Amino acid sequence: METKTFKLRHSASLVPAYLILFILVAYLGFHGLGIWIIVVAFVVLSCFTFLGYWHNVTYREGMVTGILFPWKPVSINIADISEVRQETDMLRYETRRCLAIYDKRNKRVIKISLAVFIQSDLRKLIEIIHELRPDLSLPEINKYWMGSKW
């Protein structure tokens, strides 16, 4: 296998949604609610955006590692993966579709938000897992599950 190290790249799909919300709040702020609401909204939206980008997933020589701030990293050896499936999960007070990698023997799970990472990188990770573990039933990442344009 040619890929020894692979890091999922972050998507910019969250930024336009937060930008639209910020513009709406700014409009309301300038029309009667005061400038303070704009400042508060900017700080809150910035925090949510940056927290979403502190979710990192890497593949390195047979090991998938997920880092979700502020928790410690979770690593699962490809040989120990018991299941990979698509789920809908609560992540930081919002519902997100995710790819869940389970290691039931060691009681570990890595949940990868489908909204945070580039779709082609998610497919590449699934292909790497499939190449090393053809016995696993792996989900197909499709545009209907992702909920966005291709």
Kindly list the characteristics that best describe this protein.
single chain, 150 residues, alpha+beta, PH-domain like, 2 domains, 4-stranded antiparallel beta sheet, 3-stranded antiparallel beta sheet, elongated
Question: Care to describe what's here?
Answer:
It is a single chain. The protein is built from four helices and seven strands; from the N terminus they run βααββββββαα. It is of the alpha+beta class. The strands form two sheets. The protein has a four-stranded antiparallel sheet, with no helix packed on it. Strands 5-6-7 form a three-stranded antiparallel sheet, with no helix packed on it. Helices cover 37% and strands 29% of the residues.
Question: What is the CA–CA distance across the termini?
Answer: 27 Å
| Share of helical residues | 25-40%
As for the number of domains, it is: 2
Low-confidence stretches: none
Reconstruct the topology from this structure.
Elements: E1 5-7, H1 14-33, H2 35-52, E2 55-60, E3 63-68, E4 74-77, E5 83-91, E6 94-103, E7 108-113, H3 119-132, H4 143-146
Antiparallel strand pairs: 1-2, 2-3, 3-4, 5-6, 6-7
Helix pairs in contact: 1-2
How would you summarize what this structure contains?
By secondary structure, the protein is of the alpha+beta class.
